[in-house]
């Protein structure tokens, strides 16, 4: 299968070749034919699978074939995404796909001047990429209407639910054109999703590529068993071995991530951080620097990093393991994107043993041990959002029986998880 066979205009296929997209990825090969036929699509797929093009190309094809213009303050196609970063990234991809067409593509996200966004929506827009909260604000101010929105995409729908956008999603649906095509993409299908899917989708085709756990296939994974106190030195040691490669380091909390970034900066690394306490401008600059290579180490929390497409990240460090196992899969999905191989290195302290076990359940495999040995499993997990469990019964450093000298396994060793 190649893009020629999917029914796009010759101009669009030429554009794809220019962009270096030659063969459709599995999600594209499965979703595009249905989307081109006007069907609703429910896609179980993560970022990194090429899902932006899977919905973006049919959308641009449909809108440019109609040859109509949007009415003032109306929107022809709406894409909802959970975070500002993802919204911006989607818009950037769409602009790439639509290059040379007359389509207007607008982004409205929180943290930016609403008045400027109101101004931009005034003349109507072909494609609007929005975060749900800001869209509601704009709808309340009557800056935009969705009655003519006949194409809708919900991207990273599970993340929108995680972030509490359920009320916004309930509010938005009745405002859309009843006759429309809707595509929903999500990495996971939590229970609440059936309500959203039931409201938004009509007889959708279900498409599934790389269930969480399977997506990790291309990523070489390993875990170091290391005490909380030993993590920073180990990270520096790992990073030192690969100074010219880009590393994304995940922390659990905003403060912890900021502190770690500053320590890395002091240790001479070109480091930046993205998390909820950073302004939009700071986040954009950090990501841009990381893309350009002026920043080599980006410390991030889950919410800030989800959905961001940063090509060529060689290493993902799980400096602190996520308490939601699926987030591990999302995190390591930042590497090995678009078919590249990548490495994911996890640091597991005694009180994170249960997290590691949950992750391995989702992965359906054991993560290879790079150094140390599994801790005793009697240590309570860290408090949500806190800095770690109480030392009683293990905790920092772990009980004597589980305290082991940290091995000197080669950081970023290159064997795959079984
Ligand atoms: P996404 O899952 O949409 O975030 O896409 C992940 C990455 O895959 C992006 O950098 C895309 O440019 C890239 N990509 C998407 N489709 C293809 C394709 N057909 N061939 C090669 N790379 C692609």
Could you explain the architecture of this structure?
By secondary structure, this protein is an alpha/beta fold. Helix content is 36%, strand content 16%. The chain has helices spanning 10-18, 26-36, 51-66, 84-98, 114-121, 132-140, 157-162, 166-172, 192-200, 231-240, 254-266, 280-292, 302-305, 325-332, 353-363, and strands at 41-44, 75-80, 105-108, 125-130, 151-154, 181-186, 205-208, 219-225, 247-250, 271-274, 297-300, 315-318, 342-348, 368-371. It has a seven-stranded parallel sheet, with helices on both faces. Strand 3, helix 5 (114-121) and strand 4 (125-130) form a beta-alpha-beta unit. Helix 2 (26-36) runs parallel beside helix 3, helix 3 (51-66) crosses helix 4 and helix 14 crosses helix 15 (353-363). It starts with 9 loop residues before the first helix and ends in a 47-residue tail after the last strand. It binds adenosine monophosphate.
In short:
The chain is of the alpha/beta class and 418 residues long. It has helices at residues 10-18, 26-36, 51-66, 84-98, 114-121, 132-140, 157-162, 166-172, 192-200, 231-240, 254-266, 280-292, 302-305, 325-332, 353-363, and strands spanning 41-44, 75-80, 105-108, 125-130, 151-154, 181-186, 205-208, 219-225, 247-250, 271-274, 297-300, 315-318, 342-348, 368-371.
